């Protein structure tokens, strides 16, 4: 089975839609989506920037999307030492790298850094249960840190979403700390990430990343990728 994680095109956050560049990126992405062949299901965040990206790609195929409320940009907040609440990523390097619990795949969301206040664990579990439900609908059942199947298949699933929540899903699927992904990885708007099942032992399924944050559709058209969500170097 193939899971394609697609980050929305270049966003205009002020109106929860796309910039003119973003609409163009989505148009460049559409032929690539069409080239995937048979698509079994298409899931999407409820937010406008993801919905609009999906619409441009999916309407030419005569398909509709299934909106999943838990796929919106990861909305959890955590309480900082000064008592203020903030989203649980985009930390300063000197602060987060000293907190060993954030590196732990099992403790990052329930360890001392994020469990003092807020709702990170609640939202992490909601997203994890959501992606597990999708896999279960296609015959793959979570078993510890891997998946079990009695009917492995070649289904193709598309997920139009956001950088933050995409990394939460990958954290769960690959047993990797989400803060490690949030802090050390980046995928550009309209990028495509492919995660595929691998069944070396019958019934025992691993999920492996075959490519990550691919934007070859932009390069092929001479379109410069957007850095939205990537912070520039500090300057005096």
Would you kindly provide a brief summary of this structure?
This protein has helices at 20-34, 48-58, 93-96, 120-137, 163-174, 178-184, 216-220, and strands at residues 2-7, 11-12, 17-18, 41-44, 66-67, 78-79, 85-86, 141-143, 146-148, 156-161, 192-201, 204-214. With 236 residues, it is of the alpha/beta class.
Report on this structure.
There is one protein chain. The strands form three sheets. An eight-stranded mixed β-sheet has the order 5-4-10-1-11-12-9-8. The model has no long low-confidence stretch (mean pLDDT 95). By secondary structure, the protein is an alpha/beta fold. It is globular and about 50 Å long. The protein is built from seven helices and twelve strands. The protein has helices at residues 20-34, 48-58, 93-96, 120-137, 163-174, 178-184, 216-220, and strands at 2-7, 11-12, 17-18, 41-44, 66-67, 78-79, 85-86, 141-143, 146-148, 156-161, 192-201, 204-214. It starts with a strand and ends in a 16-residue tail after the last helix. Helix 1 (20-34) crosses helix 2 (48-58) and helix 4 crosses helix 5 (163-174).
Question: What structural keywords apply?
Answer:
about 240 residues; alpha/beta; eight-stranded mixed sheet; about 20% strand
């Amino acid at each position: 089975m193939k899971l394609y994680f697609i980050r929305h095109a270049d966003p205009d956050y002020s109106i929860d839609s796309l910039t003119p560049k973003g609409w163009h990126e989505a148009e460049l992405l559409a032929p690539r989506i069409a080239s995937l062949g048979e698509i079994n299901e298409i899931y999407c965040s409820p937010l406008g920037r993801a919905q609009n990206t999906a619409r441009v790609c999916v309407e030419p195929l005569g398909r509709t999307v299934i909106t999943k409320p838990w796929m919106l940009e990861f909305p959890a907040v955590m309480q900082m030492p000064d008592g203020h609440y903030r989203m649980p990523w985009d930390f300063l390097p000197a602060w987060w790298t000293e907190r060993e619990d954030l590196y732990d795949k099992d403790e990052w969301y329930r360890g001392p850094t994020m469990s003092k206040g807020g709702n990170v664990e609640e939202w992490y579990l909601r997203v994890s249960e959501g992606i597990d439900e999708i896999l279960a609908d296609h015959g793959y059942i979570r078993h510890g840190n891997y998946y079990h199947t009695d009917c492995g298949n070649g289904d193709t699933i598309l997920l139009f979403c956001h950088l933050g929540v995409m990394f939460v899903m990958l954290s769960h699927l690959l047993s990797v700390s989400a803060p490690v992904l949030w802090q050390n990885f980046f995928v550009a708007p309209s990028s495509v990430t492919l995660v595929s099942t691998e069944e070396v032992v019958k019934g025992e399924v691993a999920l492996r990343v075959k490519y990550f944050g691919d934007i070859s559709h932009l390069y092929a058209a001479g379109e410069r990728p957007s850095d939205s969500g990537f912070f520039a170097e500090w300057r005096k």
